[in-house]
Design goal:
2-enoyl-CoA Hydratase, Chain A, domain 1, alpha/beta, 260 residues, 17% helix, globular, single chain, 5 helices
Length: 260
């Protein structure tokens, strides 16, 4: 029997009572609302001091997906540019800025990325990183930074997907075939039988890809352990947020302990 399948784009839980963990599995109309639902709880509890987040791949890109990405980034930013798209002429440039304000009021934030983080997740990570709002942990992202426009070919004739622009982070860096580099690189322990499957080659290895504006970069490891206790990137995020470890030049918990 057919049934309506309801996707849950955002899931969350707490770790140790002081850190909120948020995972985005898809970018759609419900993503931003899903992010806002847990925020009052996290904001109102005095012990809640930080909010690490994991961003997953946006595999299917709707026409207005860039707007949804902007709303997600804007959830954690008080102001500033989030992303720009640039075509062949200056008149085609579009800029998206934060409007909603930072729901977690400047609390420390970590974003986890890897070789499977593509498109929307790269835009979110790049925006929060360029504004020094978040620390990125993991491995280089996929590098999918091109914009496609859908052109209808008439009733019954389908449509044409045409690449028309590139995505740029607020600092002016192109994502295409280059990806986003984390502040702290953390490699996972990948089982031998899965190493070939989770060694991503990235956008630069795709046949017919749009060339990068500069040196192209290959992809990176995309494996995420099924058990959170085995996730080395997530563990590094928790340690940074709690001040167990300190990395020069990136934000950490205001009550930082002595590094081990």
């Amino acid at each position: 029997m057919r049934e309506i399948i309801r996707m849950r784009p955002v899931s969350y839980h707490t770790d140790g009572g002081d850190i909120g963990y948020v995972r985005i599995t898809t970018f759609n109309e419900q993503t931003t609302d899903g992010l806002r639902k847990p925020s009052p709880t996290y904001r109102n509890r005095s012990r809640r001091k930080s909010w690490p987040a994991t961003w997953s791949t946006c595999a299917i890109i709707p026409a207005d997906c860039s707007i949804r990405r902007s709303r997600v980034s804007g959830t954690f930013m008080a102001r500033g540019e989030i992303v720009s798209t640039r075509g062949r002429t200056a008149e085609e440039t579009q800029r998206f800025t934060a409007r909603t304000g930072d729901l977690i009021k400047g609390k420390p934030l970590v974003v986890l990325i890897n070789g499977g983080s593509a498109s929307a997740s790269e835009i979110v990570a790049g925006a929060l990183h360029d504004h020094k709002r978040a620390t990125l942990i993991g491995t280089r992202s996929f590098g999918k930074g091109s914009v496609q426009t859908i052109i209808p070919l008439g009733t019954g004739n389908g449509a044409l997907a045409l690449t028309t622009a590139r995505y740029f982070t607020p600092s002016g860096r192109s994502i295409q075939a280059q990806g986003v580099v984390p502040d702290i690189e953390v490699l996972q322990d990948v089982p031998d039988e899965l190493k070939a499957r989770f060694d991503m080659k990235g956008e630069a290895s795709m046949r017919g890809h749009l060339s990068a504006e500069g040196a192209e970069q290959t992809g990176s490891q995309s494996y995420v352990p099924p058990a959170e206790k085995d996730d080395k990137a997530l563990g590094a995020a928790y340690n940074l947020l709690r001040g167990v470890t300190v990395n020069a030049g990136v934000p950490s918990s205001p009550k930082a302990a002595v590094p081990n």
